Amino acid sequence: MKFDKIILAGGAGSLGTTLARYYSDKAREIIILSRKPKAAQGNIRTVVWDAKTAGDWVKELDNSDLLINLCGKNVNCRYTEKNKAEILSSRLVPTRLLGDVIGKLQNPPALWLNAASATIYRHAEDRPQDEETGDIGYGFSIDVCKQWEHTFLEQQTPQTRKVALRIGIVLSQNGGAFPALCNLVKFGLGGKQGNGNQYVTWIHEQDVAAVTEWIYDHPELTGAINVTSPNALKNTEFMHVICKAYGISFGLPSPKWLLEIGAAIIGTETELVLKSRWVYPKRLLDSGYQFQYPEAAHAVNDLVSIY
User: What is the DSSP letter of 118?
Assistant: First the structure.
């Protein structure tokens, strides 16, 4: 076994499931910190925490190789004041808590990876945004991203290396945006959304998992890292890729006004599909990482074949 113990804080969701499966044959033990108990599955064990206060779960972090914090309320909701407060606190509170706990451990995790978001960059249709030359945007979502990263990076953990993962839209069979997009295609609504010129920054779930191990193996990597495919696509092209994977030649477009009505009905925000996220993983590529799924067509075909 390469790893002795890996901790997945808030790891009961889609990405946590992918990571637990990925590391199941690489680690002696995988511990998921979750608000809800769950029976152990092989070497994957769930430990209950409230993500707000220290408790018995703290001892699990001692002598661990890798901590990955995935905590954060889903942003697929209306941005009411209540939801905005929960979106922010669900990210900042667990991050501060983990930082405080790690700072007091004699044998803290060697590496702490904290989820962040590629949404931190501005709406970009002119050029890709990388870690060195990208422009930070403005607005509620970006403010959340900035506070989230700042809270993480300010934690004093001299024995623990820290990396913020600016993750794009994760294409996964377990949940998230991809199954919803597939359903649109199946119902004939696989055309462009809005004007279709906005870029979609995506990454296959297996690449996210592999990137976490890559970062562990490269101690020179610290700070913020874009975890996205190097080949973002315009929305029109991305939806066409999904349609083609299902053998569907045409999909009705969804103009902005229709998206706004639909978003209000299902309780979400049009920003999630209309913002142009053109993000480039310069630091990963410079370090030598080779993507398993660099092209959207390959990633989508892999996932569609599973359904």
Answer: G
